[in-house]
Amino acid sequence: MLELVSLMGNVTQNTEIHAHAMFSYFDSKSNDIKYFGGDLKEADVLYTGEITIDPVKDGQISKVFNSNIGINVWDFQEK
């Protein structure tokens, strides 16, 4: 069984919601903490999961394509 140790990331929205999550977990078979990073697409929680989401106040975060580096980057907008 894997036990979630940490889950951190961000949620942005343009036309659709996009979540980017980084996580680490404890592997009870090897007794090692393993770190994997990237998009957590889905997960099944067997017992409990505590998740806190802190909203951006007085603004919003979306993403915009940056042609200089070829990826979508955060776009901070104040209200």
Overview of this protein structure:
It is a single chain. The protein has 79 residues and is mainly beta. Helix content is 0%, strand content 56%. The chain contains no helices and 5 strands. The protein has strands spanning 2-13, 17-27, 32-36, 59-66, 71-78. The protein has a 3-stranded antiparallel β-sheet with strand order 1-2-3, with no helix packed on it. Strands 4-5 form a two-stranded antiparallel sheet. It starts with a strand and ends with a strand. The mean pLDDT is 79.
Distance between the termini: 45 Å
Q: How would you characterize the largest beta sheet?
A: 3 strands, antiparallel
Uncertain ranges? none
Global morphology: elongated
How much helix is in the residues?
A: under 10%
What strand order characterises the main sheet? 1-2-3
Beta-strand residue fraction: over 45%
User: What do the pLDDT scores average to?
Assistant: 79
* SSE pattern: EEEEE
List the quaternary state of the chains. Answer: single chain
Count, helices: 0
Number of strands: 5
Overall structural class, as computed from helix and strand content, comes to: mainly beta
Q: Give the radius of gyration.
A: 16 Å
